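Following up on my earlier thread - several people asked me to post the actual chain instead of describing it. Fair enough. Here it is, all 146 residues.
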Amino acid sequence: MDASREEQARRIQIALQHLRRSLDAASLKAAEQSITVAQMYLLYFIRQQDKCRLTQLADRFGVKPSAITVMVDRLEKAGYAKRFPDPDDRRSMLAGITPAGKEALERALRARNEVLIGHLSRLDEAEVSVFLRLLEKFAGVTEENE
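Reply from S.P.:
Thanks for posting it. Predicted structure:
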């Protein structure tokens, strides 16, 4: 790999880390609870799926099922998630998001959007359009796989 590509990759990593930290900090502050970034992502995934098996969560997040159990325990204790038996498999448990969990997640997502809008305000409309097109291309995002 040539040195300029390595430098570009390093700069992209730094920019992405900075952006992610500011988004995560805003999300957690907006949630107004002692909830971790990982728990926020967990709530987001559960909401997308409507309900899902704990083993599915473990696979998705690349952790052991026992780690997911602890995270869901904490979310359940905070009133953000609920656990119930899987009607298709009595051995499995499903996790779902509660109304309070949806509310906390919505506050966090709105805060993330506000941070992104703040970052976008540094660009003019033409730059935003180009940035969005390039970012979607870079990430491999199309309208079909949003």
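The chain is about 70% helix and 10% strand. That should answer part of your original question.
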